[in-house]
Each structure stands twice: as structure tokens, then as C-alpha cells.
Amino acid sequence: MNSVSIVGVGLIGGSFALALRKAGFTGRIIGVSSQPALDAALARGVIDEALPLAQAAAVSDFIYLAQPIERILLSIDVIDQHARPGALITDAGSTKVAIVNRAASSIHRARFVGGHPMAGKESSGVEQADADLFRGRPYVLTTRDADLESWIERIGARLVVMSAEEHDRLVALTSHLPQLISTALASVIGSAPDAARVAGPAAVDLTRLALSPYDIWRDIFATNADSVDAALSAFIAKLDELRSALRSPEMERAFENAAAAAKALRR
Amino acid sequence: MNSVSIVGVGLIGGSFALALRKAGFTGRIIGVSSQPALDAALARGVIDEALPLAQAAAVSDFIYLAQPIERILLSIDVIDQHARPGALITDAGSTKVAIVNRAASSIHRARFVGGHPMAGKESSGVEQADADLFRGRPYVLTTRDADLESWIERIGARLVVMSAEEHDRLVALTSHLPQLISTALASVIGSAPDAARVAGPAAVDLTRLALSPYDIWRDIFATNADSVDAALSAFIAKLDELRSALRSPEMERAFENAAAAAKALRR
User: Fold this and answer.
1) Mean pLDDT of chain B
2) ipTM of the complex
3) Do B190 and A217 touch (CB under 8 A)?
4) Strand A115-117 with A111-113, pairing
5) Rounded to the nearest 5°, which phi and psi values hold at A97?
6) B 37-76 residues inside an 8 A Cβ radius of A
7) How do residues B208-220 score in pLDDT, each as one tens digit?
8) What are the domain boundaries of chain B?
């Protein structure tokens, strides 16, 4: 692998570039992004040079799409004609079915592997990029690919291989549902005058995600609405179950089961 | 104030004792608790001596009930006959209506002020006690009391005065609802095989409360079921609203409103 293009040089794309360098990649790293992002990335030494998408694709063995989902879909629509035959293209989008389906119909000369690193920070932008962002975090691939798997291992992430469908169903539970819960909780607390006066650490912790900007969520909901809907149904059913158990000894078992599940998440 | 009794020398009671000392209290601090807690508290110098409740009450100007709610109710039932006339009794229970009502019918010689410091730690026990636990945190009193308010100020807490009813309604939203949300989320994630493989920081953060032991929650739900029920209804209604907006531009406004509420909680 001699030449990598990072398309969308923000927190994730920039971190992937830094992680590749730290893991020993010595080839050239090309950035494709908005001018301010490119300027910041060049200034920080995150990328070696900046090119438009077509030219970058034409000289790259590996293309990393780290844009918002709708932009990734647009890149997929146009990239194949510019890419080298056999080049590896992957993405870092938060949902996978729409992206993998689009790639299956649009990418033929190059090879596409859907990806999703389960990592992030509260602030975005290449200024926040961090070579260790993926370390110890799950990194989902929707198909196996020896080259890509080897880099994922070298940047310290935990490889997880699953279908795009399974990915979208599971992140609806582990990521999209928590976001909606936090948004709903902040909203309910916010509509009670004086609630802020008694808010302790629990309320503060559980409303942190509600501070997230809507930008990235629009695309996530647009491309994973069915699974998010199902996750909300399962969650509301569980809340109703707990509500019925408020005055009953069954609540103790519910707490025990939930604590065991919460512990399992931390393993 | 020459002599204080801390009834229930755990995290909160022990922290209150340490905070009083740090704030300049030079009188004697008596502990009333289980033998292991008393031993640990004496070893750490959190209390000066240990006495049974009746004897401790008989020599104290100030009695601080920091037990679980049901134990506080039992202490209230018996303490008045032992307390000095005019002694100040307060508590640190997580719900206030049941406690304040019980005190109104049982405490006549002494004076009772319901209290709730919005502070805690993941681990309990006097070993975790911390003189700064209340610093910067809301400390609710259900009635005004100049002596108690002055100590709350001196230990660095933020005094909030509100009725027991308002307290219970608001903490149902800011504390009891977050607990049930976390328990329900952990349970839903736990029932999806493989979800743990893709769990990122959002799932981990939002399921932290699910690790809480049930002990303290039994009494909270038993004494605040109506408000918790209402909080669950409001939250489920909001989730249903977000679910209907998954594919609609209204979601953006919902995110903006929730973010504003989450920011207000942090002021």
C-alpha cells in the first residue's frame, strides 16, 4: 500500500490518517475535503497533500470515505470510474445497509468493504484528530478483507465482522436508541420548571448525548429508520414492564438482569 | 451547636461528618450505625464516639438521619421521645413526602427539616466518605431553617428550598427516571445477542446507572411511585413523539430544544 486517500478529513478521517502513520504506514496520505479542513490537516501534518476526489482516487491503492452518510453515498456514485482497478475502498459511515447496497450497484473496478469504527469524541473536526482514537474500540467490517483487517489490527482497534443488516439492527440499540433517549430525557426535564435546580450527576450524565448536533443524525435516521423504530418499540415495552413492576418484587430481578447486562457491556 | 449525631454512618452520613469538621465544627460527633460501619468510621476518625440511637439523641443538638428511607421512617417513629426539646433533626433521604409526613405526625419536641443532598458516588460506605462530596451540589431543604442553612452553605453545597411534593415530583424526572431508563436500556441491549460487540461509549455511559444495587431503589419506588409513574408517562410520550418524527424535519427542532435543555442543566 503506497498511497491512501482520506475523503472527508474530519475527526474520524484525520484520526485514521494519524493512526495509519503511527502504525507504520510510510506511503503518501492524500486529503480530499473542504478547503478549511484541508488547511487545518496540512498545518497539523495529518495529510501530505490535498487533491480533488477524481485525481486522488486515480493515484490511491486505498480510499477511506469518512464523510457524512449522504456524502459517502454521493462519493460512491462517482468514485468507481476514477479508482484504480482492485483498489480498496472502505467507509466509516454510522449505518451500513444503504452504503453497502449503493456500493454493490456502483463499485465494480475497485473493491468495497463497508466499515464502522465505534469511536468518537464530543468535539468534531480534524483539530481533534487522535492517532489513538480507535484503540480498544470495536471496528466493524461488513465483509472480510485481509488488507483492511491487518490495518485495523495495527491501529489497535477490535475487529468485528458482521453483515450490514446485523450492524444496523445492533447499532440502532447501542447507539441510535441512546441518542434518542438522551434527547427525550433532556426535553422532558427541560419542560419541568425548576427541575434543573435538583439535577444531580444522573441527569447530567444521561443528557450529555442530547448536546450532539443534529447534522450527523439526520442521515443516520434517514438510512436506519426501521431498525431505530424497532429499537424504540423494544425499549418502550421494557419501560412499560418496569412501570408495572414499580410496586412489585419483580423489580429486583429486573435490576439484577440489567446490572448483569451492563457488566457484560464493559467486558 | 455542641454535639451532632450521625445516624447511618455510610457514604452520605460519613461525608456530612467530614464536611462539618472541615467547615469548622469543633463539637463532638456521635455515630449511630451498624458495628462494622462504626468501627470503620472510628478508624478513619469520621466520628468521635459510637452510641445507640436513644442515648445519642439525648445528648445531641443536631441529629442527621442518613439511613435508607425505610430506616429513616423507623428512626422518626422513635426519636422524639429521646431528643432534646428544640433539637434540630434532618435527614438525607432520596424522597421527601413520606418522610416529612411521618415527621409531622411523630416529631413534636424536636424540630424536623426534610433534606436531600444531591450527591453520591458509585461506591457506598463510610470508606468512601469525602468532606467535599456536597461541594457545588444542590442540597434541598423542605422548609427553611437558619441553623441548617448556615451549615449547608459552610459545607459548600447549593441551598435549594422547595416543598416535599415538588421535590419528589422533580427528582422523579431528574434521578428516578434516569435510573429506570438506564436499567431498561441495559436490559434491552442485553437481550440482543452480539449487541455488546458493537457497543461504543454511548451505550456504556447510558448503562452506568444500571449497575446500581437495588437496595436503595426499593424504598425510593415504594415512597414515590406516583411521581415516577408520571415521569415514565411523560418520557414515553416524548419517545413516541420522536419516533413519529424519525423521517421528518421536526426532528431537527426536537434536537435543538433538547440540546438547549441539556445546556441549561449544566449551568
Assistant:
1) 96
2) 0.91
3) no
4) unpaired
5) -60, -50
6) none
7) 999 998 988 999 9
8) 3-162, 165-265
